[in-house]
Design brief:
This protein is an alpha/beta fold. Helix content is 27%, strand content 20%. The longest helix has 17 residues.
């Protein structure tokens, strides 16, 4: 008769499930590649004090460092990195280096998650699904595929539940299938809008396609928690386009989409906001169509409308604004490359929403004022809208540039110009004390 396996204490080898409360507690992540890119957002969402140890980082991880969300030690791991830590996640595929981290963790009695070898780990990362305040974590006995299968079944049940369990409902977005000829393999591409930052704002259809993907090509502004829920066998391609920093060329992104699809894989191009609102989704669709790759387009909640909304600014309001214009500000008004008629925009009475315009905001504001838009026109700037890091600044067109500098606001941020900025304010509203940068 075969004796059942037992743990070191003489009991069952099954893991003991826990929900770790990590606010302010140090968690060390060793490695700066794709695995770390997927795991770090959940740690940050849990409030952990994250120390990332790696000589190199993906652009997405570097954006977290630049935003001050975590600390980075740009070198190889040393055992003293674990001093004061509560948990360590090893996100490298070098077995020798991973074993060194495990040994240091064992010596300090710190639980260690191993991406390279789950049998050598003292803790496992579960398959997770989140619905408002409800978090469901599934352990599959060390088999990540089993855990994902059970997790997905639970998620489906929770998504179908109508009642007090869920705090938000999500409407499914419509999709348009576009195909240009037959392909030699069964591959296809979906251009999916991930929404403005809150992971719950992705559409139901977008989320479903994400769970079916073989390859995910993700932008920097994609909600990180969506990446944390991908199957372990999904290839994650970081296509971050960090402003004025490292980036993949659009041609390279197009090539990745086409090559993976022609190899018979289902590719999701996950883009912040909506794929067609300054997202170059049209260029990517044309590249796929030229190669004969079928494309499904899933619209996303655009930040141009959603971010002002959550900051208390409706882009239209009865008797205040009967129009709104969305414009890209990534090219300065006086640049020969600019396609925007700023002089014409200055003459409009409605709302002006400027995306990607923080760097050129002084020139944009000056140009609008020079062409007749009153300097006293209300203006708002919302940084990282719909996320826990959201900040809102209320000002006027004439003062907003200086106020942004004084408040230390940084991209990604959206600028709203027009009387709608104060349309929902009461006598003690958020702008009652003058221009001020506010938390969410």
């Amino acid at each position: 008769m075969t004796e059942p396996a037992v743990g070191p204490g003489g009991g069952s080898p099954n893991p003991y499930p826990l929900g770790l409360r990590l606010p302010g507690r140090r968690v060390v992540v060793v490695g700066g590649g794709v695995v770390a890119t997927r795991r770090v957002p959940a740690l940050l969402d849990a409030g952990a004090d994250v120390l990332l140890v790696s000589p190199d980082l993906t652009p997405a991880l570097r954006s977290h460092v630049d935003a001050g969300r975590l600390r980075w030690a740009a070198r190889r791991f040393v055992p003293s990195d674990l001093d004061g830590a509560w948990l360590v996640q090893v996100a490298v595929d070098d077995g020798t280096a991973a074993a060194e981290v495990s040994a240091a963790a064992e010596e300090r009695r710190i639980f260690c998650v191993r991406a390279d070898d789950r049998t050598a780990a003292t803790a496992w990362t579960p398959a997770v699904t989140r619905h408002g305040p409800v978090t469901v974590a599934v352990l599959g006995g060390g088999d990540p595929r089993r855990a994902m299968t059970v997790r997905d079944a639970i998620r489906h049940l929770l998504s179908a539940t109508k009642g007090p369990l869920l705090t938000h409902s999500v409407e499914e977005g419509a999709a348009v299938n576009i195909s240009a000829g037959a392909v030699s393999a069964a591959g296809r591409v979906a251009l999916v809008g991930a929404g403005p930052g809150d992971p719950e704002l992705i559409t139901v259809k977008g989320w479903r396609l994400l769970t079916e993907a073989d390859v995910v090509v993700a932008d920097r502004l994609v909600p990180g928690l969506l990446l944390d829920e991908l199957r372990p066998d999904v290839e994650l391609v970081d296509a971050s386009k960090i402003p004025y920093g490292p980036s993949r060329t659009q041609q390279e992104i197009n090539r990745i989409l086409v090559d993976r699809a022609l190899a018979g894989r289902f590719v999701v191009r996950l883009k912040g906001g909506d794929p067609y609102v300054f997202g170059r989704g049209g260029e990517e669709l044309l590249a796929c169509a030229e190669a004969g790759v079928p494309v499904t387009v899933v619209p996303g909640v655009t930040s141009a409308i959603a971010v002002p909304a959550v900051a208390g600014v409706p882009v239209t309001h009865r008797a205040v604004a009967h129009e709104f214009t969305v414009v890209s500000g990534h090219v300065a008004p006086d640049s020969p490359a600019s396609l925007v008629r700023w002089d014409a925009l200055a003459g409009l009475r409605g709302t002006l929403v400027v995306l990607m315009g923080l760097k050129n905001l002084p020139a944009i504001a000056a140009t609008l004022v020079a062409h007749g838009r009153p300097a006293g026109t209300p203006a708002a700037v919302i940084q990282e809208g719909t996320t826990g890091s959201q900040r809102t600044l209320r000002s006027t067109l004439g003062e907003v540039s200086a106020d942004v500098v004084a408040a230390g606001l940084r991209p990604p941020a959206i600028v709203v110009i027009g009387d709608v900025v104060g349309a929902l304010d009461g006598p003690d509203g958020p702008d009652g004390s003058g221009p001020e940068a506010l938390g969410r």
